[in-house]
Amino acid sequence: MNHSELESQIRAAIRELSATFPPEYWRKADEARGYPEEYVQALTEAGWLSALIPEEYGGSGLGITEASIILEEINRSGGNSGACHAQMYIMGTLLRHGSAVQKEKYLPQIASGKLRLQSFGVTEPNTGSDTTKLKTTAVRKGDFYYVNGQKVWTSRVQHSDLMLLLARTTPLDQVKKKTDGLSVLLVDLREVNDGELTIRPIRNLMNHETNELFFDNLKVPVANLIGEENKGFKYILDGMNAERILIAAECIGDGYWFVEKASAYSKDRVIFDRPIGKNQGIQFPIARAYVNVEAANLMRFRAASLFDASKPCGKEANMAKLLAADASWEAANVAIQTHGGFGFAAEFDIERKFRETKLYQVAPISTNLILSYIAEHVLGMPRSY
């Protein structure tokens, strides 16, 4: 099977599955601030969330290109892959840096859906994107690490069995490079004792389950250390390109959804005895939004192809995320404007998707930090921060 045939099959399958979850399903989840458990379970049972897991562990053994298509189609079908996308981009840390024992223990259960790996604890309230200065510590005593500290914007932890956690295992003032001394731990949330972990939900703009976490001597077996102690920062960086590409794909799915909604509405909405789509003031913004989504789509596939070929793709992955986030946000605003007052009505779904896609102007990396990266690492300009 060639790539175009595989891509067509993936798109058709995701659309068919998503069609069984009509817009009303997502509206109810949004209104109730509820987790789309049934949809995530359906994706899991169909094997889509184990796409990156090698076949020997029960997965599909697909690449980032195919994974990005899955997430794109979820959003293009009117859903929100933010409820489950982390398993895709977290997976690489375990796949590339986990031990054989860890892979054998966890991957088959993740692939089958018995375990969910959906949570990633990195960001802290006082350090933000300055990851090397994080304050959460993991001190080794015998066969366990004892974790103390705080994380924020840790999403889906209430619907996960496993969480990847970045903590400092050597104090910052004792390392030669500030990127040293950080380690990645795989936390089995099912084994957390009372009082070790406090979860405080954060109510936010969109229906996105995210939390502030407080660790009080959280006990994690040394056997759950991913890779080498003190080398965790590079493991996290290693997965960031995948994350950028996958988030870009979600934005592209959103962008197409907005453009399709706006163009369809412009044909049907009749004012002053003519469809509003006859007006160039309506046509031009929709057409420009479509052009920009298409351009971002090309950069997404360029970045994904480089990633799958194990070639450097930092520039392309960051540009794909920037272009896609901007294109989806532009398309969201165009869809609101085209629908007028109805764009704010929940029954049209525009306002829900508008809120959801706004997130990617800020997370998982802001557009300004991407521009700083391009300026410094691509154009050779002085570091700005």
- DSSP helix count? 11
CATH-derived architecture of the largest domain: Up-down Bundle
Outline the low-pLDDT stretches: none
Please tally the β strands and state the result: 10
Largest sheet: 4 strands, mixed
What proportion of the residues is helical, as a percent range?
40-55%
- Structural class comes to alpha+beta
CATH topology assignment of the largest domain: Butyryl-CoA Dehydrogenase, subunit A, domain 3
Assign an overall shape: globular
* Helix and strand pattern: HHHHHHEEEEEEEEHEEHHHH
Overview of the molecule:
It is a single chain. This protein has 385 residues and is of the alpha+beta class. It has three domains: 3-116, Butyryl-Coa Dehydrogenase, subunit A, domain 1 (Orthogonal Bundle); 118-230, Beta Barrel (Butyryl-CoA Dehydrogenase, subunit A, domain 2), CATH 2.40.110; 234-378, Butyryl-CoA Dehydrogenase, subunit A, domain 3, CATH 1.20.140.10. 49% of the residues lie in helices and 15% in strands. The chain contains eleven helices and ten strands. The strands form three sheets. A four-stranded mixed β-sheet has the order 1-4-5-8. It has a four-stranded antiparallel β-sheet with strand order 2-3-7-6, with no helix packed on it. α5 packs antiparallel against α7, α7 (232-268) runs antiparallel to α8 and α7 (232-268) packs parallel to α9. The protein starts with a helix and ends in a 7-residue tail after the last helix. The relative contact order is 0.11.
